[in-house]
Design a protein that fits this description.
heterodimer, A: about 290 residues, mainly alpha, two-stranded antiparallel ribbon, two-stranded antiparallel sheet, 11 helices, about 70% helix, B: about 325 residues, ABC transporter involved in vitamin B12 uptake, BtuC, about 65% helix, about 0% strand, globular, disordered N terminus, membrane (chain A)
Chain lengths: ~290, ~325
C-alpha cells in the first residue's frame, strides 16, 4: 500500500488530513454564519475578523497573562463573543428594519476596522503559537504520520458542530431560536424576549468563529489577514450548502475541505479555485444549494 | 435597496426631464463637472486626476447595478482588474494601440460579466453579493498563477502608445484628455442607459421584481444585460488605469478593490447620477493624503462604512439633493 493511483500514500493521506482540517474550519465558520443568518437575516462579514480575533486573543492570553491553550479555548470565545454582543447591540440592531444588504455593508466596515487595527499593532507577519504539551508529537500509523494536534482539531470541531446541532434541535432555547427564525413577531407575542435572543444568537455565532480561531492558531501562524481570505471561501461553502440546514452546512464544510485536499494531490494548480468552480456548478444545476430551500 | 435612501421619491417641477434625460439641476451639475475636468489639470497633478477619473468611471459602473437594479455586486474588482491585465498585455506584448487595448480589456470583461452574471443572477440579495465575491476571488487566484499576469510582480512597463497610432499619449496632458474623454463617454453612456425605456424597466425590477415579472418582463434577461454593461464599463476603467500607470497588478483584482467600489458609491450616494464621481473623488483624495499611514487607511475606510450605513445612507450627493429637493 505504498501508492494509490500512482500517488505515494503518505502524500495522499497527508493532504486528505489537511483537507479535513480545512473542512473543520469551513464547517465551524459556515455553521456560525448560518445560525446568525437564520435569525438576523444578515451575512456577518465580520466573521473572518472575529475568527482572527479568536486566534489573537489566544496569543494574548498566553503571552500577556500566561494563560495557556486550554484557558484560551474557554476564554477567547467568551471574550470575542462579548465583543460581538456589543457590536450587535450598538450597531447591527439599528439596521433590522432596513434592507439586509446594509447589514452586510456595516459588518464589512467593522471587519475592515478590526483587521486594520490588528495590522497596526501586530504587523502583517505571523506570530507563532505552539500547541499545548499534551497535544504535541504524533503517531506513526504505518501509512502516514498523524500529528496529535491535527487529529484533535478534527475530532474537537466535530464535537462542537454536533453539540451545536443538538442544542438547536433538542433544547428549549433551540426551539425558541428555530421558532423565531420562522416568525419572530409571533414568538415575541408568546412572551419570548426576541431582541435578547437575537443578541445571544449573534454572540454565539461570533463565539463559534473565535473558537475556530483558537483551534487554528497552532496550525496557521496568527496574523491579521488569516480570516479574510478564509471567509470568502466560507461564503462559497455557504452558497453551495445553502443555509437552511445545520447538518447540511457541517457536511458541506467537511466535504469541500476533503475535495480541496484531494485536488491539491491530483491537480495542485486548481486547489485554490476548486471550491469556487464547484459553487458555480451547483448554482447552475441546483440554484438553492445542496441543502437549501428555494 | 436604493428606493428608501435616494431622493428618487421626491418629485418636484424642477425634475422635468430636459436635454438627453438630464433635469435642469442635473444639467447644472454636469456643467460643473465638465468645467472641473477642463480646468483641473492646470492646477492639480494630472496623474492624480486620471486615477480619480478611472475610479469615478468604475464607481459609476458599479452604481448602475446597485443604484438602478438593486443588485449588490461584491466582486467588481474582477472586471476592473482583468480589464487592466488584458489591456496591459495586449498593449505591451501584442503592441496594440491604446484604444484597441482598452477595447480588448472591455471585451474580455464583457464576456466575463456575461458568464459570471449568468451564474450569479440565479440568487438574490445577500447570496448575490456572496456569489459575486466568491467568483471574483476565483479570478484573483487565477491571476496569481496564470503566466501572462506576472503573478506577484504584475505586468510592468506597459507602454501608453499612440492613440490611433498617431497621437503619442506619453505626455501626461495628452493622456489626461484621452482619459477625460473616455470617462465622459462612459458617464454619459450610463446616464443614457438609465433614462432609456430599458432603464425604466430596470428601475421597475428594483422596486418590485414580482410585479415586473407579472407585467411580462423577463427580469433575469434585463438583470443580465445590466450586469454585462456594468462589467464592461468596469473593464474600460481598469484598462485605462493600467495604461495611465503602466502597470497592472493583483491589487486591482483583489477583494479590497471591490470593497472600494462599494465604498465610493456609498459615500457619494447610491442611485444618484453624480454620487459615484463625488465618492471616488473623496476616497482617492483621502488615500492620496493618508498614504503614509499604512493600515490606518483601512481603519478609516471601515469607519466611513460604519458611519455612512448608520447615519448617512443617502451619501453626500443624496443628502445635498434631498436638501435642495432635486434629483442629482
Amino acid at each position: 500500500m505504498d501508492e494509490i493511483f500512482g500517488i505515494p500514500a503518505p502524500l495522499l493521506f497527508g493532504q486528505l488530513l489537511l483537507g479535513l482540517i480545512n473542512g473543520a474550519f469551513y464547517a465551524m465558520l459556515s455553521l456560525g454564519l448560518a445560525v446568525i443568518f437564520g435569525l438576523l437575516n444578515i451575512i456577518n462579514f465580520t466573521h473572518g475578523a472575529q475568527f482572527m480575533m479568536g486566534a489573537f486573543v489566544a496569543w494574548m492570553l498566553l503571552n500577556w497573562l500566561g494563560l495557556g491553550y486550554w484557558w484560551a479555548l474557554l476564554l477567547a470565545p467568551l471574550i470575542v463573543g462579548l465583543s460581538g454582543v456589543i457590536i450587535e447591540r450598538t450597531m447591527i440592531s439599528r439596521l433590522y428594519k432596513l434592507d439586509h444588504l446594509y447589514g452586510l455593508l456595516l459588518t464589512f466596515g467593522i471587519g475592515l476596522i478590526i483587521e486594520g487595527v490588528f495590522r497596526n499593532y501586530f504587523g502583517s507577519s505571523g506570530l507563532p503559537y505552539r500547541p499545548p504539551a499534551e497535544l504535541q508529537g504524533g503517531w506513526d500509523l504505518g501509512f502516514m504520520f498523524m500529528p496529535v494536534y491535527r487529529f484533535w482539531v478534527v475530532v474537537f470541531s466535530l464535537v462542537v458542530c454536533l453539540a451545536t446541532w443538538l442544542m438547536i434541535e433538542k433544547t428549549r432555547l433551540g426551539a425558541y431560536l428555530r421558532a423565531a427564525t420562522e416568525n419572530a413577531a409571533l414568538v415575541q407575542a408568546f412572551g419570548v424576549n426576541v431582541p435578547r435572543l437575537i443578541t445571544l444568537t449573534y454572540g454565539f455565532g461570533v463565539a463559534l468563529a473565535a473558537l475556530a480561531g483558537v483551534l487554528a492558531a497552532p496550525i496557521y501562524s496568527v496574523n491579521p489577514q488569516m480570516g479574510t481570505n478564509l471567509i470568502i471561501i466560507v461564503f462559497a461553502v455557504v452558497v453551495i450548502g445553502g443555509m437552511g440546514s445545520i447538518l447540511g452546512s457541517v457536511l458541506t464544510g467537511f466535504g469541500l475541505g476533503v475535495v480541496e485536499g484531494l485536488t491539491r494531490v491530483f491537480w495542485p494548480e486548481a486547489s485554490a479555485t476548486v471550491i469556487f468552480v464547484i459553487m458555480a456548478i451547483v448554482l447552475v444545476t441546483r440554484p438553492a444549494g445542496l441543502f437549501g430551500r428555494a | 435597496m436604493a428606493s428608501e435612501t435616494t431622493a428618487g421619491a421626491i418629485a418636484s417641477p424642477r425634475d422635468e426631464i430636459g436635454f438627453w434625460g438630464f433635469s435642469k439641476p442635473q444639467l447644472a451639475a454636469l456643467a460643473v463637472l465638465i468645467a472641473f475636468i477642463a480646468v483641473a489639470p492646470y492646477f492639480l497633478y494630472p496623474v492624480f486626476l486620471m486615477k480619480l477619473l478611472c475610479f469615478a468611471l468604475f464607481a459609476c459602473a458599479f452604481n448602475l447595478l446597485i443604484g438602478y437594479v438593486g443588485l449588490l455586486s461584491f466582486g467588481h474588482a474582477a472586471y476592473f482588474g482583468m480589464g487592466g491585465y488584458i489591456a496591459g498585455h495586449t498593449a505591451k506584448v501584442w503592441g496594440l494601440t491604446p484604444e484597441l487595448a482598452v477595447l480588448a480589456g472591455a471585451a474580455f470583461a464583457c464576456v466575463q460579466g456575461w458568464i459570471f452574471g449568468w451564474i450569479a443572477i440565479r440568487r438574490q440579495g445577500i447570496y448575490f453579493a456572496m456569489i459575486t465575491l466568491a467568483l471574483a476571488q476565483m479570478v484573483y487566484f487565477f491571476c496569481l498563477q496564470a503566466p501572462f499576469t506576472g503573478g506577484e510582480d504584475g505586468i510592468q512597463a506597459i507602454p501608453r502608445g499612440s492613440l490611433f497610432g498617431v497621437i503619442s499619449l506619453e505626455p501626461d496632458m495628452t493622456m489626461y484628455w484621452f482619459v477625460a474623454a473616455v470617462f465622459l463617454a462612459g458617464f454619459l453612456f450610463i446616464h443614457r442607459i438609465i433614462h432609456s425605456p430599458y432603464g425604466q424597466v430596470l428601475k421597475a425590477i428594483r422596486e418590485n421584481e414580482p410585479r415586473a415579472t407579472s407585467l411580462g418582463y423577463r427580469t433575469d434577461d434585463y438583470k443580465l444585460v445590466a450586469f454585462i454593461l456594468s462589467a464592461t464599463i468596469s473593464g474600460v476603467a481598469g484598462g485605462v488605469k493600467s495604461l495611465v500607470f503602466g502597470i497592472a497588478t493583483l491589487t486591482d483584482v483583489f477583494w479590497a478593490m471591490s470593497g472600494e467600489a462599494v465604498l465610493m458609491t456609498l459615500v457619494g450616494g447610491i442611485g444618484t447620477v453624480f454620487g459615484p464621481v463625488v465618492g471616488a473623488a473623496v476616497i482617492v483624495t483621502m488615500q492620496n493624503y493618508l498614504a503614509e499611514m499604512g493600515a490606518w487607511v483601512t481603519v478609516i475606510q471601515g469607519v466611513i462604512f460604519v458611519i455612512i450605513v448608520l447615519a448617512f445612507r443617502r451619501g453626500i450627493v443624496g443628502e445635498i439633493a434631498n436638501l435642495l429637493r432635486v434629483k442629482l
